[in-house]
Amino acid sequence: MVPAEPSPTNPETGESVVPPGRWSSYRTMSEHVRPAAERVVEALGPPGGTLLDLGSGDGNGLGAADRAGWLPIGVDLSTPQLQSARTRVAVATLVRADVGRSPFRDRAASAAMSNFGVIFAADVATSLAEIARCVVPGGPFAMTAWTPDGWPEPCRAILTRHGGGQAPAFPVTLGEPTALAAALDRAGLDVRTVSSASLRWRAADAATLVEVLTNAAGGLRALRGRCETEGSWPAARAELVAEIETRCQSVGEQVVLDDEYLLATSTRR
Q: What's the CA gap between 32 and 170, in Å, rounded?
């Protein structure tokens, strides 16, 4: 393993800690979802062979899989993300590919995972079927999906209204337990569990969170840029702060914002 750069998280709880005035685009979001990647790998059960990480990003799941004893293979369409993963997880095999057009043969992997990855696929149903095809019968697959009632969608709506134009909706079609279980079943995966979990952002106040979230989340960052170009960012920002304030809890001298998600486990039929 190549050591990663210091993580902006609470070492005792694993929660994301947002220092005032600091954000770093995807790196901040990556560190925020890292604890979920650890849970996905744990949910797979005992390690045993090759593990495909679909939408592997900059290597959170790959690192967790390596530490657990799997032989990880990362699959992602983004060359910069794969390059970042290489600096963090030297032992992993990395493949640039579309999850929906897998280059792997049938039953090539012992297991598969996707931490907030396959939910962004252009064709989720096809991608899940491809994942199932690549895993041996009885092999585990675990994934995470954002729920539909979180902060991203209302923030997207605010930014879209102020910036003009249209933007893709946040990918929450698998965020309901019944919808996620049905999608896995249709793909040829027998559902074992679908459970709720959450991640947390912490910051000094809601205004700081708005600055971080609209830079860390790629879709929101693009919408913010449109608002800045149109000169509507101050009004949009005020509305975003008001929205986030309704979703925060005060904990000591900080505010806490929850990110709820589903963790599903299944096996190849």
A: 17
Residue for token pair 């990003």: 57
Contact, 173 vs 124, CB < 8 A? Answer: yes
Q: How far apart are CA 85 and CA 104, in angstroms?
A: 20
How big is the chain, counted in residues? 269
How far is residue 55's CA from residue 255's CA, in Å, rounded to a whole number?
A: 31
Token reading at 167: 């933007």
pLDDT digits (tens, 9 = 90+) for 140-190: 999 999 999 999 999 999 999 999 877 677 889 999 999 999 999 999 999
Answer whether 156's CB lies under 8 Å from 167's CB.
yes
Is the model's pLDDT at 14 over the cut of 80? no
> Strand, helix or coil at 63?
helix
* Integer Cα distance of 18 and 24 in angstroms: 11
Tell me how crowded residue 122 is: count the other CB atoms within 10 A of its CB.
9
DSSP helix/strand/coil, 17? strand
User: Cβ neighbours of residue 169 under 8 Å, at least 6 residues apart?
Assistant: 153, 156
Residue given tokens 């005792």 in the structure block: 12
pLDDT at residue 171, rounded to an integer? 87
Helix axes 124-134, 177-186, angle to 10 degrees: 50
CB–CB of 110/135 below 8 Å?
Answer: yes
CA–CA distance, 269 with 4 (Å, rounded to integer): 37
Q: Which of 19-23, 44-48, 216-220 has the highest mean pLDDT?
A: 44-48
What's the rounded Cα separation, in Å, for the pair 91 and 93?
A: 7
DSSP character for 13? T
